[in-house]
Write a structure and sequence with these properties.
Shape: globular
Number of helices: 12
Largest sheet: none
Oligomer: single chain
Radius of gyration: 28 Å
Length: about 375
């Protein structure tokens, strides 16, 4: 009788045992030159992101406090960002020799318009609040956007309800309450503005996630998304800008009622500077996300808030008492728990996917194994 061939499942175990030493080598290579290069690259991307993010926060606060035209400033930023995205899309199309995605009016109105309106109301209220509150209170209150993102994610079924999410919400909300409790620089009007902006930010990013995940829309490239969303943001902001600041902007000597041409050139230059910072902030976020992961971006965001609060205290003289400091720690702890939970869930889902693929592979091996046994039996019979 012919000999039976070695079972593929035994071969699989041998491969696994052969891979284990290689896995240990990979762990030891964390101190290798390649790992060092990756670490330095990630560090540079984080610093690049911090520069534009923190820079834009302080720039907007200084500019808006001085000129008191937050909506007009935001409108100018939108126009410049749209022009830059259109220009870069054209260059990319020429370089790749293919047309960029251009959504029809129907899809534009149904999918992009809601995201654009929510985005501009978030940005406009955030910038407007700088007239009344400090950078510290703005940063802490804006961090509550995590709560609203979770709420809208549950509403749109992008996130599964879990008990740990309740603790995340309680931590962040409790930390915010402690941070604003008996604050010497608290302003109710500005606080309500930025809290409303946080709610709209949750809606904005949830809608943006739905848009970017639609395969048929094809808006995976941030340039394409910015190109399509900026016009809706301008349409949403223009009536508000004209109503609240039209007369003020046209009668201010710093702008259109100017008497010194050099002054208007300087001020317009400052406006364009802010627009370029805003554009490169979005670009730096995309670079960090594309070259690392969303977890890295989330962790970088936590440390960015800490850096912003430190600079606000040391540069702008923002004051915090002991209870406010405890509130800061509690709020950042809630955000950290949220980031850890997302990382664990993402890792668990990837393990499940790999487990499923392994089970499918085992089924295929068993099928191949049974076929080989049948073949061996058949050959044995014919040998007889």
């Amino acid at each position: 009788m012919a000999k039976f061939k070695r079972r593929p499942i035994d071969t699989l175990h041998e491969i696994e045992h052969a891979i284990e030493p290689r896995a240990r080598e990979v762990k030891q290579s964390l101190c290798s030159f390649g790992f060092l290069v990756t670490a330095v690259k990630t560090f540079c991307l984080v610093i690049f992101f911090y520069t534009f993010s923190i820079g834009l926060t302080f720039y907007n606060q200084r500019f808006i406090r001085h000129f008191e035209i937050p909506l007009s400033l935001t409108m100018a930023h939108l126009v410049v960002k749209f022009m830059i995205s259109a220009f870069l899309r054209t260059l990319l199309s020429i370089y790749l020799k293919e047309d960029r995605v251009l959504l029809p009016w129907g899809e534009n109105l149904k999918k992009i318009a809601p995201t654009g309106i929510a985005s501009i109301l978030d940005i406009a209220l955030s910038n407007w609040s700088f007239e009344f509150i400090t950078i510290s209170l703005y940063t802490m209150t804006k961090s509550t956007a995590v709560i609203f993102i979770l709420g809208f994610s549950l509403l749109f079924r992008l996130e599964k309800p879990r008990l740990v999410l309740v603790f995340v919400v309680l931590f962040i909300a409790g930390g915010l309450f402690m941070f604003t409790f008996h604050s010497t620089q608290f302003n109710m009007k500005g606080f309500i503005m930025v809290l409303s902006a946080s709610l709209l930010s949750g809606l904005r990013w949830t809608l943006a996630q739905l848009v970017t995940q639609k395969e048929k829309l094809g808006l995976h490239n941030p340039l394409d998304l910015m190109y399509h969303i900026q016009p809706w943001m301008m349409i949403g902001l223009l009536p508000l800008s004209v109503y609240f600041e039209g007369i003020k902007l046209s009668t201010k000597e710093d702008f259109f009622a100017y008497t010194d041409p050099s002054l208007i050139i300087r001020n317009l230059g400052l406006v364009f500077l802010g627009a370029f910072i805003a554009f490169f902030l979005e670009f730096s976020e995309f670079l960090l996300l594309a070259n690392t992961s969303s977890l890295t971006l989330s962790i970088a965001g936590i440390f960015k808030e800490v850096c912003t609060l430190y600079l606000a205290a040391s540069v702008n003289g923002d004051r915090m008492n002991f209870i406010n400091g405890i509130g800061l720690i509690v709020c950042l702890s809630g955000i950290s728990i949220h980031v850890i939970v997302k990382a664990v869930n993402a890792r668990g889902s990837s393990k499940n996917e790999s487990r499923l693929s392994r089970e499918e592979t085992m089924e295929m091996l068993r099928a191949d194994d049974s076929e080989s046994e049948e073949s061996d039996i058949f050959n044995a019979k014919t040998d007889r």
